[in-house]
Write a structure and sequence with these properties.
By secondary structure, the protein is of the alpha/beta class. The chain has 2 domains: 4-268 and 399-418, Alpha-Beta Barrel (TIM Barrel); 269-389, Golgi alpha-mannosidase II (Immunoglobulin-like), CATH 2.60.40. Helix content is 24%, strand content 17%. The protein is built from 9 helices and 19 strands. It has helices at residues 49-54, 72-89, 107-114, 127-130, 143-153, 160-173, 199-211, 248-266, 412-418, and strands spanning 4-7, 57-58, 63-64, 93-96, 117-120, 139-140, 181-182, 215-216, 276-280, 284-289, 296-301, 310-314, 324-327, 332-335, 342-346, 352-356, 378-380, 395-397, 400-402. A hairpin with a 4-residue loop joins strand 2 (57-58) and strand 3 (63-64). The longest helix is centred in the middle third of the chain and has 19 residues, at 248-266. The two termini are 29 Å apart. It catalyses: Endohydrolysis of (1->4)-alpha-D-glucosidic linkages in polysaccharides containing three or more (1->4)-alpha-linked D-glucose units. Residues 2-260 form the Glycosyl hydrolase family 13 catalytic domain. Belongs to the glycosyl hydrolase 13 family. Its EC number is 3.2.1.1. This is alpha-amylase.
Length: 419
């Protein structure tokens, strides 16, 4: 397991109006000189970069004193702090809060001082605006995909074509899509299940989350299908579920992580293969990631759990004619047609994940002892995820981290202030 911390460098916190702050209470920035003058950021300033970096977040009840990160002395103090924090606690990675509100030139030195993987929260859905900030950090959180992903799958009227187009935009604008952190839920936004109780739609969005390009983030509680619609009710108590490992989404996530891990281990090139959408319409998409022999083919739809069965003929998958392929969520095997296509029967709007059967030999995926596999000309995507699950594993593939993160974000300065 890797340890990843959520850190805030943009601001501290004060329980009161910004005019009442006692700066001597803060450590190490115990003087007003370390902070920008009090002025709340207005909703009328979203495109004003200077205002975003200089003005304060928060409100008149809970203000967030804004740190002068552009000050070389402040920056050096932060660099020394993060170097010590990472060393003292053997930290493996950082998630950096409110990146858009910090001087961009602060981050190269911070990332270097940390000496570990850093991904930044860039709350902006426009790739042309968000992606340039990756020049200053290892990675950014993939908000440009998030908004389109949720809209594509949170109802049966979502437009998958718009998501596919946005995927192409992100590929063109971002320096390295393989290290962007991809998510479908977080602590600041509505849980996916607050939009819809359709279990098939939820399975499709999680499948995309884990198997698309990037490093997947799974927010704690997704595996229990939590449904909080806003902060703080979207930060539910996990222990009330008794950490149920029999939950359908727990099993789905484990199975998806297992095939993703296997694909990384089976081929060095998987990590850097730029995913392709080999088919899409307004309600269905097929993604390919990986070169021939180790490719993962993912079939997704937003037609929902009440939809009629659909048979989709999938071409351009990289499979060979007559090759055996396994649908790894149901462990159903089939042979491709002579033209190398496969017929995928989409049952109840569920996702499907295909991998060359020969490439699974020696693994625990759909082998003896796992759910029965069957041969046929079609693969039916059942509503029962595979039970052939090992524990969720994490690992790094060279310079391309490949792990699943589950965390509850904590604002460290706020916690310290309350203590």
């Amino acid at each position: 397991m890797y340890l990843m911390l959520d850190v805030v460098v943009n601001h501290f916190a004060w329980a009161g109006n910004g005019t009442t702050v006692d700066y001597s209470m803060f450590n190490p920035f115990n003087s007003e000189d370390y902070f920008h003058p009090f002025k709340l950021l207005s909703k009328d300033d979203p495109g004003n970069h200077t205002a975003a970096q200089m003005y304060w977040l928060g409100d008149d009840v809970l203000s967030l004193p804004d740190v002068r990160t552009e000050d070389p002395k402040v920056a050096q103090m932060y660099y020394s702090w993060i170097e010590s924090l990472v060393s003292n606690y053997s930290v493996d990675g950082l998630r950096i809060d409110t990146v858009l509100n910090v001087d961009p030139q602060f981050f190269p030195g911070f990332n270097k001082a940390a000496g570990v993987f850093c991904t930044g929260e860039v709350y902006n859905g426009d790739p042309a605006s968000a992606c340039p900030l990756q020049e200053n950090l290892d990675s950014i959180i993939n908000f440009p995909i998030y908004f389109y992903l949720v809209r594509a799958f949170n109802s049966t009227s979502g437009n998958i074509t718009a998501l596919v187009n946005q995927m192409e935009n992100v590929q063109q604008e971002c320096r390295d899509i393989h290290v962007l952190t991809t998510f479908s839920e977080n602590h600041d936004l509505p849980r996916f299940a607050s939009y819809t109780r359709d279990m098939s739609l939820a399975q499709n969005v999680i499948t995309y989350n884990i198997l698309a390009d990037g490093i997947p983030i799974i927010y704690y509680g997704q595996e229990q299908h939590f449904s909080g619609a806003f902060n703080p009710v979207n930060r539910e108590a996990e222990w009330l579920t008794e950490y149920n490992t029999d939950a359908p989404f727990y099993k789905l996530i484990a199975s998806l992580n297992e095939i993703r891990t296997h694909a990384f281990q089976a081929a060095d090139t998987y990590a850097t293969y730029v995913g392709l959408t080999i088919y899409h319409d307004e309600h269905t998409m097929v993604m390919r990631k990986g070169f021939d022999g180790s490719q993962v083919i993912t079939v997704l739809t937003n037609k929902g759990e009440d939809s009629d069965d659909q048979t989709l003929n999938v071409k351009n998958s990289g499979f060979k004619g007559g090759e055996k392929v396994m649908e790894v969520l149901t462990c159903k095997e089939q042979k491709t047609h002579s033209d190398a296509s496969i017929n995928v029967k989409i049952h109840k709007g569920l996702p499907g994940v295909f991998y060359p059967s020969a490439g699974l030999e020696g693994s625990n995926i759909c082998q003896m002892g796992s759910p029965s596999s069957s041969s046929g000309s079609e693969s039916s995507l059942s509503d029962k995820p595979s039970l052939a699950i090992s524990s969720i594993r994490t690992f790094s593939q060279g310079s391309n981290p490949a792990f699943i993160i589950g965390f509850l974000s904590l604002w460290i300065p706020l916690i310290l202030q309350w203590i």
